[in-house]
């Protein structure tokens, strides 16, 4: 097991079956039962309007785990060898509705850091549905299109150190598997990272639905304090300044999608992926067409606590 992972009563902690880079955390029924009362203290509106309430339910979650979850989450996410965990109930039951899952996602993230304001939703989180028919301007809601590997926060000024993606509901779904890629497992990393064009500033915009009026400039690749590669990239939002930048982005996109080291799996309803946004990329395969397809997701992203 990961060197900083210890057993916590009521939490089943193991390596994910598809990768030892991902820690799987299943919450047992006894913990779910103990969370119901503190979670009921605040409704969703209170969490949206009064930020301190979010830290109150985060402390409730951490206290039930004898104060060990906060250190566990931080150690996993900040460790380059891992940087990702999946957390959710071991068993779904009638006690676990979408409000409970929003509160659980809120509690988990507020043990990690401060969430960014999500301009698309106007809140600290965004909920969005994926349906059979869609008229949006983003791949996010297009069920039958591959969502290519990317990181979040490419078009905003806020730091986006980590992100959480929760599956709140899913019906009449085939396909649509999640896939992830750790930067250090990518076969083409050295080739692309060492290309000088990737270190140039690119312009990044966003479609109208994101409600971000400005554009930002930053490179695709940078280095962390230890000299390790970091990436900030999504295929829909860069605006190449010239032919060289355009062709670099095409080469990058092809090299990511062709990787044989993507980790592909189905995320259970009620579970959340939490990942370091600098060296993990995420995507989603297309769904099989179904007029009754329905899926609801939640997203929170933000920065680590400084202390």
CATH topology: Double-stranded beta-helix
What is the correct CATH architecture?
4-Layer Sandwich
* Rg, Å, rounded: 19 Å
CATH class: Alpha Beta
Q: CATH homologous superfamily?
A: Clavaminate synthase-like
Individual helix count: 7
> Into which percent range does the helicity of residues fall?
10-25%
Q: Looking at the structure, what is the overall shape?
A: globular
Mean pLDDT: 92
Model regions low in confidence, pLDDT < 50 over at least 5 residues: none
Give the quaternary arrangement of the chains. single chain
Overall structural domain count: 1
- Major β-sheet, in short? 8 strands, mixed
Element-level helix/strand string: EEHHHHEHEEEEEHEEEEEHEEEE
As a percent range, the share of strand residues is 25-35%
Report the span from N to C terminus: 26 Å
How would you describe this structure to a colleague?
It contains 7 helices and 17 strands. With 307 residues, it is α+β, with helices and mostly antiparallel strands. It has one domain: Double-stranded beta-helix (4-Layer Sandwich), CATH 3.60.130. Strands 1, 2, 3, 4, 5, 7, 15 and 17 form an 8-stranded mixed β-sheet that branches. A 4-stranded antiparallel β-sheet has the order 6-16-8-14, covered by helices on one side. The protein has a 3-stranded antiparallel β-sheet with strand order 10-9-13, with no helix packed on it. A hairpin with a 5-residue loop joins strand 11 (221-223) and strand 12 (229-231).
